[in-house]
C-alpha cells in the first residue's frame, strides 16, 4: 500500500507539469483586458466636484464604473447573461445608483464609491415599463417603478416598498411612462394606441389616485418614442404624420393643443421620425422648459416653452448629436456638428438662451476605420471662474467609447466591441525589412554573379547599419531612467522575435469590427469597422497567405454570411496592417453552403478558398488560370461534406473537373429521435509527432490518425431524464464511413467537444447522476500499421479499435480546447474554461482510456495513471491564477516557434492571453540559469587541458631524453 | 487476485456487449435470383442497389436483396446476383478511368411495428473506387449502421484489400461473383464513470491493509535498525576513530 501511495505521489509529481507562476512573473507573459460591452446607460458621477467616475450599464448585463482620467475600471459587476440579467433602467442619485434588472424582476442599489451593494429587492412579477426618481420638497427619497399592471413606490434608502397600486384599466391601456415633477404627485402615463392618452395621478404619500383623465390622441402610439414632459408638467409630443407639436398641461388641461410645425417655420425631413428630448437636472424640481427636437438625421433644434408659446431658441443644422448637461445651476447643450470628412466639432450652448458659449469648441476626430458617432455623453463642470467646462464621451456605432477633453485631446478610448469576439486567428509577424531583403534574395532569379555579390553586400550593409542603430538605441536608453524608456510597439517596427512568441492576433467581433492586437502587450495596432454587417451574421476567418512569402503580403479572408438568407460577402485584408487588400473578392450572388481552404496554392502562394453555393456549384478564390488548372488536376481527390442539421442529413461530395460536384455518400440521422448539435473536424495545422504508443512490453500500439475524421454529436429530442441521450458518431469525411457510433445514455447537453490526433474528448451532463462528466474516445489501428507512409481514407479497410472511458468532473464548463505546438512532440493538455472564470490546464494524460483499473507491471512501465473515476481540479492547474476571465466563450491556441510553448487566448467578456508549457520548458534555459558558473567551469577546464597538455609534452620530452 | 478476477469479468462483459451488437452474416454467391424473399426469414426485404458508370452519373440498378430481421437483435442476410458479362466489362472500364462504384440502400426502420412495408424515404449511399472493387475480385465488406431506435442511418462499403495497385484482373470469372461480408451495427453504449469498481478496489486495499500487520508498523518499528546503525555510526565518527562497520548499514 505504501508503495502504491508512493507511486501515486510519484505520478502526481510527474504529471504536474504546469508550474505555478512566480510572483515576479505576474503579467510578464500574460495580459488581461476587461470590457463592459455596448453601453446602454451612462451617468457621470456629479455629486462631487472632484469625482472622476462614470457609471456604465451595458447591453451585456454589466454594470461598471470607469475612471474618467484613464478609462480603467474602478469596479465591475457582471450579471447573468440573457434576459434574466438585462438592465432595464439606471437611476442615479448622489452616492446611490439603482438598477432595474431582468424585466422588472429585481431592484438593486449600489454604492458608487466602492461598488458595493446597498440593498436588493425582489419586485412583484409583471413586465417592466418605466422607472423614475421621485423628489419632494427639494429632497429625493423615493423611486417609482411602473409595470404593466402595477405602480410601486420604494424608499431610496433601503428599497422597501412604500406603496403599490394597481393601475386602472390596465387591460386596455398600455402604461408606458412615469413622471414626477417634485410636487408630491406621481404621474402614470398610458396610451390606447391611436385612440387616447390615459393619465393617472397618484399621491406620493399614500398612493391614492387623486386624478384620472383620458385625453383624445388618435395619432399617438408610443409615449417614450414621441413624448416628453417639460417645464411644470407640460406633456409635449411630436407627430410626424400631422407634422405638429402637441402640448398638454397635466394639471389643468383636458385637451391637447396642436401646434403645427409650419407655424414655427419648421419642417421634418422626409421619412424621419422626429423625437423630443427634455432634461430634468434634479428629480425634486420640474424639468427645464427648454427641450431638444430632432427633425432629421442632421437637424436638431433647441426650443423653449414660454407662456404657452413654443419659441425656437436655436436651430442646429447640420448637427449630428445634441445632448443636455448640467453643472451646478447651469444647464448647457452640447452639439456635435460635422466639420469635414474626418472631424466633428462639438460646441456648448447655454440652454436658457441658446447662445454659444465662448471657447468651448472641441474637435472630435472621426476614425476612418471606425463607425459614426451614435451617442454623446457630456460631463459638464464649473470652472474656477464660474464658467462651464466640459468633457465628452462619444459612443460610436462600433461600440467604441472615446473620452475627449478640450480642445480635442483624446484622454482614452475603449473598444467595447472586444467584449464580443466571435472568432480569431494568430498570424506570424513579418520579418524586418532587412531580414526580408536577405530572404528575398533567394527567391529571385539569378541575374549575373556580379550583381548578386553586390546585392548581398548591400543587404549585409543594411543589416550592419540596423544593428548599429539598435546598439546606439540601447546605449541611449541606458542613460535614461527606466520609467521613461518606452517600448513603443507600432506597426512600423513590428517584427518577428527569435522564437516567434510574439504574433498578431486578428479578432473578429460580432459588431463587425476587426482588430489587430499585438500578442505580447495587448495593444491594439489596427482596427477596421465593417459597415452593414447583418445582425445575425456568421463569421469565418481564414489565413490565405502567411507572412512566409515575402514580398507577397500576408492575406486573410473573412467570410461574412447572413444566417437567414445564406448570402455571403468576403472581406480580404492584410492581417498585419488591417488594410483592405488590393485583390478584389468575387461577388457571391448565391447563398453559400460551405467554404473550404485547400492546401493548394496559386503562383502567389495564396491558398485556394473554395465556396460551395446552394446549386452545389463551386467557385474558387483566387480564381486565376493557374488555380483552375491545379483544381482540374486534383479534382478527383477533393472531397467535402455538407451537414443539414434541420434534416439530419450529412452528405459527401466530390469535385469534378468542371467545378461542379457530385454527391458520393449520404448519412441521414432521423430528426424525430435526435438532432445534430455539433460537428468537429481536426485542425489543419496540427502535427502529430509519434505514430504510436510504446506499450509496457515494448510493442507499439499504432494510433488511428485519420485527418478526415469528423466527430458528430447529436442530442436526443426527448429530454426526459431517463430517455435522453447523447450520440457520438465518428464519420470519415471522405467516404462517409461510420467508424464508430456510440450513445451516452441518460445524458444531456450542452456538449463540449475537442477532437484531435486520435482522440475525441467530450463533456456532458449526466441526468442520472446529476453531474458533469468527461468521456474520452481513442482510436488505434492495432499492433501493426496498414500503410505507414500515407493515410488515405479510400484505402483503410479495417475499422480501428475504439477505447473509451469516462470520468466525473466537479464543475460545469464553458468551453474547451486542446493545446497545440509546433511539431506535436510536447504532451497535450486540455484547456477548460470554467464558468467561475478560471482556465484549467488539464493534462490529457488523465483522460486516457488505457488508464488501468488494476495496476499491472506493464501499465506501470507505460506510465499509465491508475483509473480513478473523478478528475480533480488542482489549483495549480489554473493558468490564469487570479486573472479571472468573465464569461469565457472561446479559447484559441496557436503554436509558437518553441516546441514547448503554446500561445493561448481566452475570450469572452474579457480577453486573456498567456503562454502554456504542457511539458515544462524543456527547450528553454531557466531564468536563473547560472551562466557564470558554467562559463567559469568551461574556462577552467580549458586552461586545465592546456596546462596538462603542456605538462604532458614536457614529461614526454623528458622521457625521450632519458 | 480478486481485482484481477473482476477486471477479467468486466472485460468479458464488455466484449459480450460489443459482440452483442454486431452480428456477422456471411453470404456467398447464392445463385437464386430474387426468390429469397419467400424464405423463413421473418422481416423486411429491401433492395441493395449499385451503380458504376463511365461518366460517374448515378444509375442505380438492383444488385441483390437485403433481408433485414427486425426486432431486438437485428440481423441481416443478403442474396445477390452475379455480375453479367456486360457489367463485368463496364466495371473494368470504369476502374480504368478511376470511376466510382456506388451502392445505396433505402432508409428503413428495423423497429418491429413498422416492419411489413417500407416507403421510399430517401436513400443512404456509399462508394468505393471501382478499381478497388476490381482488384479485390469483388470482395467487399458492407456495414449497415442503425441508430438507437433501429433506424438505418448509414451504409459503408470497403474492399479487402482496399488499395488500387493497377494490377490487371485477367480472369473474367474473378469478377462474376460477389464475396460480400455483411454486418449490421447498432450504436455501442458508451461507458459512464466506473465508480463501483473503483470503490470496491479501494475497499479491498483498505482490507488488505487491515489484514497485513506488517504494513501498519510505525516508522520507528520498521526502520529501528537503520536508525540505530546511523546513531552508532555518528557516535563512532564523533569519537574520531576510523569507522569499522558502522557505514555498512548506511550504504
Automatic annotation (TrEMBL), chain A:
UniProt topology in membrane: Single-pass type I membrane protein
Cellular-component GO terms for this entry: EMC complex
Keyword Plastid: no
Subcellular localization(s) per the UniProt record: Endoplasmic reticulum membrane
Subunit architecture: Component of the ER membrane protein complex (EMC).
Classification via PANTHER family: ER MEMBRANE PROTEIN COMPLEX SUBUNIT 1
Family note: Belongs to the EMC1 family.
Name of the featured protein: ER membrane protein complex subunit 1
Species assigned in the record: Nothobranchius furzeri (Turquoise killifish)
Gene expressing this chain: EMC1
From TrEMBL, chain B:
Location within or outside the cell: Endoplasmic reticulum membrane
Keyword Cell inner membrane: no
Bilayer topology: Single-pass type I membrane protein
GO cellular component, one term: EMC complex
UniProt keyword annotations, A-Z: Endoplasmic reticulum, Membrane, Signal, Transmembrane, Transmembrane helix
Main location: endoplasmic reticulum
Highest taxon listed in the record's lineage: Eukaryota
Transmembrane segments: 6-26, 223-241
Keyword Transmembrane appears in the UniProt entry: yes
Family per record: Belongs to the EMC10 family.
PANTHER family for the chain: CHROMATIN COMPLEXES SUBUNIT BAP18-RELATED, ER MEMBRANE PROTEIN COMPLEX SUBUNIT 10
Subunit text: Component of the ER membrane protein complex (EMC).
Designated name of the protein: ER membrane protein complex subunit 10
Native organism: Nothobranchius furzeri (Turquoise killifish)
Taxonomy of the source species: Eukaryota, Metazoa, Chordata, Craniata, Vertebrata
